[in-house]
Amino acid sequence: MGALQSLPDEPEYRDLSEKTGFSFEQIGILHKRFKQLSHNEDTLRRDDLNTIPDLSCNPIRTQIIEAFFDKRNFHQNGEGTVQEISFEEFLVVMSHFRPPALDMTEEQREIIRREKLRFLFNMHDTDNDGTITLEEYRHVVEELLSRSGALGKETAKGIADAAMLEVASISMGHMEPDEFYEGITFEHFLKILKDIEIETRMNIRFLNMDTTNLCKVNRAYPDCTSLTKYTDKLLESCLWFGFGLL
Amino acid sequence: MSVRVALHSPSGSRSFLERGLLLLVMLIFLEGTVLTLGAASSPDISAQDNTGGHDHRGIEGSHVHTNYTYTKKAFPVLSLDYHHIQVPFEISLWVLLASLMKLGFHLIPRLSSIVPESCLLIVVGLLVGGLIKLAGEEVPPVLDSNLFFLCLLPPIILDAGYFLPIRPFMENIGTILMFAVVGTLWNAFFVGGLLYAVCQIEGTYLSQVELLPCLLFGSIISAVDPVAVLAVFEEIHINELLHILVFGESLLNDAVTVVLYHLFEEYSGAGEVTPMDVVLGVICFLIVSLGGIAVGAIYGILAAFTSRFTSHTRVIEPLFMFVYSYMAYLSAEMFHLSGIMALIACGAVMRPYVEANISHKSHTTVKYFLKMWSSVSETLIFIFLGVATVAGPHAWNWTFVSVTVILCLVSRVIGVVGLTFIINKFRIVKLTTKDQFIVAYGGLRGAIAFSLGYLLDKDLFPMRTMFLTAIITEIFFTVFVQGMTIKPLVDLLAVKKKQEAKRSINEEIHTQFLDHLLTGIEDICGHYGHHHWKDKLNRFNKKYIKKCLIAGERYKEPQLIAFYHKMEFKQAIELVESGGGVKLPSAMPSQVSMQNIQPKKLPPPVAERALPQFTKGREEEIRKILRSNLQKTRQRLRSYNRHTLVADPFEDGWNDFLLKKQRLIELEKKMTEMSNYLTVPGAIPDSPTMCRARLASDPNAFYNIKASSDGVPTIQVDLASPQSPDSVNMLNEFSKEGHTGQGLGQREGATGQGLGQREGATGLGLCQREGADRDEDQGLMMKPPGKGEKGEEEGGNKNPGLMRCLSDPGPSNEDEEDEPFLP
């Protein structure tokens, strides 16, 4: 709760909390991070995110950043992109990654599932026409493989084509040769990813405790709150150590 | 006896005669096994044998002696010396028995759907033991601890470790460790402590049992057994999360069991336990578990490193994997570290690198051997459990046994519920009540507990027999009652099952995408979670470790590309196995072709119509497979060679011009024949939908298809036109090898691409036909004729490599193939 001091008053928090489902503490922490990223401005720009050092080696960096400035992800019915986002929008985008609650009815689960998949879909559907065309899909795969040099670039096309063919055959069944598969619609998208339990996978842990002082800007060993994660890290550092030895 | 079991069960669709025959065979084998075993295992008889043999020899000796001067002894034409081969013979008999039993159960499908195999095997063991006893012989100590821990257990654990699903395992490692360490500790102390309390009650006649033996017993009985869990869980097809939770727990609790066992065994001699000992115990636990993992990892890396250099000795490649793993196990056991953890670590560490290094065939061998050994071991273990039960001696104490069974159940339930309550606070995906129930109910005990109990010293533990009886009862209870009811319960509770479908390329793409996305979001949030560290580790692995451990250029290959390659390869194999292109098994209902997803646009200039570079190598490979499958004559073993499976003269004669030339001619001839042959059957299903396999970058394929489908259903095979006139020229131009011709390149493209893109029902005939079409198309596009020829030539050149690839498609081959295409 230490983060609260530097933050706006309670009512606004309550609003945000109702809207996004984050707890006050989580909002506080994210707000602090937001301020840190935006250099104490009220709005965040693309450049602020571009300069995050850890993000620089992420192959799909541009897509991730774009997702934050995409109006479709703000739970409003807007389209297109914006130049800068406020904290509220930042929080709304983040809320797509909130872990689901323990007790959910099937309908709730389905709603969450659709929301998360919609977010993913929007990341792929860059021109916002409701379908992921072959070009867009190729672009996604190319970005994914962008770290592997020339080899990746060449293969990406083949992979995207194969994947698209698979989507078409799963979702359309039989097609006449003169028919044309426009692209992946959201319904098809749901269909092809039905085996990935997105509602249990597309989420990250939002902390309840302020650890920003632990991890100032870059390097630190944060989040010792959770036992399971701690053991994870222990194991991982053991692995690192082991590899280092050899 | 199993024979009767078989008789009672209504066996599916088998004819009566067949069944009868089977039963007869089983009976004979059973009898034979038992009789010989009885004869063999009895010391009396073998002694008699011995003396008999001795006498015989003595007589002969005296005979020789007396007639020393003038006669030679008669040469023994046939003599019996069973003693000489006794041990290996008996081992083989047991293995045979086990294998036949497994075979038998699978011939009776209805029986195995009701009763788990493990139960049946125990019953068989009981019967065999009973027969041995009936024959008046002493039952051999089959489940001897040495035999069990050094021979029977390692294959099962290695199999488990090698095929361990790393991803779910690492994602749930916290929960698994919690169950394995804290849960097992809790179980051991709860069961041990309460048992001691019960033993102190008057009237149970157990007051001589002390606290430490009780705790020792608790630590033996509390560990969930991987063998039993595997046997049961494999049959119920539970979802991945639950499977990995229970199975992971059963693997990792080994360290706890080992430490507790040694600790209590040590102190029950000494008597007193000080706080210092507890601290030492904790340290010991850390050393045992981490040490085991370290030993395993070292051997795993050694194995991976060795496999880097095995490209010339493909036949012994699999052996390295097994030997290194076994060495890891033995080394760990030598220091009383956790051998199970060492094996798991070894298997899991070496797998990704070894898989990239060794040839496809070697990998298949590794997989088959692992499965074979582990299933035979498992069968033997369950049979031996049955035999050991009969062997006795038993000391049945109602109170002790029933209290043990009840306490095990209670402590398991309390442990799981309590731990889940804590774990759920930290888990992102919470465990539901159903999950908890299955985890608790799936806690089966097995042969490891029995072997540990068997290991106890009789003098130190006078109540050893009672312990063994209780352990066996608990094992039987869990395996029979829980193992048999868990399947109906899973159905009843509608617990999510495992999806059988294989991974699709879309799922793979999105899994990768999600990984990067979550890493990115974590980075934006500014805290380093699970994904962040995983990403770091991945990058480290890619940057340094793969480079060291993977031969050739393969290490550069990102996961997605590797997956894609594997998928393509699998499809090609499937296509071949389905009968050389008659029809694919309808695993992939492919009704859509590439043209359907291609945006319709004007044909781009010819120059841009090159294939994506990468696919060429792959196409070659697929083409090769197809071709060789169709022409069995070429696959003949040319000469016997101990070191390779298919001795192909072209394997080494890469530069042998003459051979190449000869082969080229042969190939040309064959190609023409083959296409001619193939195109005829291909014509029949000449619906437009079947004419697929279009190039990704070839939009006018669409028009081409249409043109042909408008015509008569018989195909205008235009094979000859691009080939026959040029085939002579081609040889002349042979020296110009190395140029990638567009003509055949694209032609092959049509074939390869078609295969690669999940063209389920596309027959080979069609592919070929389309190949021909494509050529025709090329002709229309006014390509310089020379290009086609060069392409053909390229195809010819490649051919030796292709045969080689079939014999062992190792990484080095791939390099050779891919090289010319790399920019």
TrEMBL record, chain A:
It comes from the Eukaryota. Keywords: Calcium, Cell membrane, Cell projection, Cytoplasm, Differentiation, Lipoprotein, Membrane, Metal-binding, Myristate, Nucleus, Protein kinase inhibitor. Residues 112-147 form the EF-hand domain. It is found in: Cell projection, Lamellipodium; Cell projection, Ruffle membrane; Cytoplasm; Membrane. GO terms for biological process: cell differentiation. One of its GO terms (cellular component) is cytoplasm. Its main location: other. This is Calcineurin B homologous protein 3. PROSITE patterns: EF_HAND_1, EF_HAND_2. Belongs to the calcineurin regulatory subunit family. CHP subfamily. One of its GO terms (molecular function) is protein kinase inhibitor activity. It is a lipid-anchor. It holds the Pfam family EF-hand_1. The keyword Ribonucleoprotein does not apply. The keyword Disulfide bond does not apply.
UniProtKB/TrEMBL annotation, chain B:
Residues 740-757 have a biased composition (Gly residues). The keyword Ion transport applies. Residues 721-823 are annotated as: Disordered. GO terms for biological process: regulation of intracellular pH; sodium ion import across plasma membrane. The keyword Coiled coil does not apply. It is found in: Basolateral cell membrane. Residues 786-796 have a biased composition (Basic and acidic residues). Residues 587-688 form the Sodium/hydrogen exchanger regulatory region domain. Keywords: Antiport, Calmodulin-binding, Cell membrane, Glycoprotein, Ion transport, Lipoprotein, Membrane, Palmitate, Phosphoprotein, Sodium, Sodium transport, Transmembrane, Transmembrane helix, Transport, Ubl conjugation. This is Sodium/hydrogen exchanger. It comes from Oncorhynchus kisutch (Coho salmon).
